[in-house]
Amino acid sequence: MKNWIPILVSMIVVLCACKSDQTAIDEAENQMNAEELYYQDYEAPVDKWGFIDTNGVKAISDRFDAARPFHDGLAVVNHQGKWGMINKNDEEIIGFKYRSLFPFQDGMARFQNFEQKYGFIDEKGVEIIPASFEAADDFHEGLAKVSINGLFRYIDKSGEPVFESMFTKAGPFKDGMAKVKPFENYGMIDKQGNEIIPTEFDEVYEPSEGIIRVRKDKLYGFYVNGQLKIPPQYELATDFHQGLAAVMLKNQWSFIDTNGKNLKVLDYDQVEYGNEGFWMVNKDRKFGMINQKGNEIIPCQYKLLYKFKEGKCAYSVNGYWGFFNSDGQALTEPIFGLVWDYNNGYARALAREGLLILDENANVEFIAPSSEMRDFEEGLAPIQYIN
After folding, report:
1. What 8-state DSSP symbol labels residue 275?
2. Rounded to two decimals, what is the model's pTM?
3. Domain of 3?
4. How far is 364 from 1, CA to CA, in rounded Å?
5. Do the domain assignments include residue 17?
6. Using H for helix, E for strand and C for coil, what is the string for 142-154?
């Protein structure tokens, strides 16, 4: 027993020392402000971000910890752990002082301070609406959704609530309407807070061509001109696009018009909107595309297919990717390891040579100096240069 006494004493001393060290750490952290606590865990990346132009030339030096695409002449970038904004001349427009920052929307930009509260700045960088919200969305049509004590309400650009009602869930305004959920069910309100679709639905979707899709008791219907013109009756349904919606009734898909008239039976297992006047269809687990008349533009023979964007859609064969044009003709053979959608006339494609930048005809414009690159916006793309 005597031999164990020194060991026990040593263990007690070590435990007391560890406890003392932890207490000191806790006391030090208690004296730190929110920004200091944030930097305790922040690790700056070794490889920095900059911007490249459409000729493959570095346009803005790689000095940022992170970078977002340009929007209305400004880009949100991170410098030494803090977010701000620069212009295309690499001039600081909004100072680097925020934990999070988002692009200007409707003349206001949302920010988050180091206490993790949200507020808004104007285009001069003035904090018009102080950081006092637990959560916030961007402004849409002059109003923004914000959260206080776990509930959502809408404010104007002065930061004042536009009406007193608060909701457990809420969406952005579109076409003068917003989806809200006061308690258990969804409805739609106008900008004065008046209920324009009763809060009695399991789900309400954003307006599409002024028509609102709703779901109740697992069935879908549509509001047209403020009236439930097509009652919930469909097992599945898409939004309206160019005057058509795809619906499924008794396991049979068809196109309907805004009066609910059945226009064409669709012999597919699944139908969804494929953008730009096309519909993505699935038959026997293979994808294809049809047009508004229901004619096949791309046959149902592809395991993977992207939706159309800028007149092109990507397709996959045996794990390799290529692009179709809007006539259903292959712009490229399936030769790429991975592709991204076209954006502003360019697409990214991964190949053995590296990250290829394709022009609108799917010709290689240049090989990017790094695979860590984002889409072009306003002639520039964020890129991380690997040192």
Report:
1. S
2. 0.88
3. 1-31
4. 80
5. yes
6. CEEEEEECCEEEE
Q: Which residues contact 131 (CB under 8 A, 6 or more apart)?
A: 111, 112, 113, 115, 117, 118, 119
- Residue 4 CA to residue 38 CA, distance in Å, equals 45
For the chain, the straight-line distance linking the first and the last C-alpha, in angstroms and rounded, comes to 61
Q: Is the pLDDT of residue 23 over 70?
A: no
pLDDT of residue 33: 87
H or E element that contains 11? helix 4-30
Q: DSSP state, 16?
A: H
Tell me whether residue 15 is in a domain. Answer: yes
H or E stretch including 96?
Answer: strand 92-98
Which amino acid belongs to residue 306? Y
For the beta carbon of residue 23, count every other beta carbon within 10 angstroms. Answer: 10
Tell me 108's DSSP state: B
One-character DSSP codes across 74-91: EEEEEETTEEEEEETT--
Pairing label, strands 186-189, 178-181: antiparallel
The DSSP string of 301-345 is: EESEEPPPBTTEEEEEETTEEEEEETTS-BSS-S-BSEE---BTT
Q: Shortest CA distance to 216 belongs to which of 237, 229, 233?
A: 233
Examine the pLDDT at 9 and tell me if it is beyond 80.
no
Q: Which of 232, 328, 226, 211 is nearest to 276 (CA)?
A: 328
**H or E stretch including 202?**
none
pLDDT tens by residue, 289-311: 999 999 999 999 999 999 999 99
Q: How does 86-124 read in b/e, with b if 16+ C-beta sit within 10 Å?
A: bebeeeeebebebbebbbbbeebbbbbbbeebbbbbeee
Burial (CB count <10 Å: 0-12, 13-18, 19+), residue 281: buried
Residue closest to 348 by CA, chosen among 329, 366, 325, 326:
366
19 part of a folded domain? yes
| Domain assignment present for 3 | yes
What are the distances in angstroms from CA 328 to CA 102, 275, 288, 307? 38, 14, 10, 13
Q: Are 246 and 238 in contact (CB under 8 A)?
A: yes
Q: Are 247 and 237 in contact (CB under 8 A)?
A: yes
CA-to-CA distance for 137 and 144, rounded, in angstroms? Answer: 6
CB 128 within 8 A of CB 101: no
Number of domains in the chain: 1
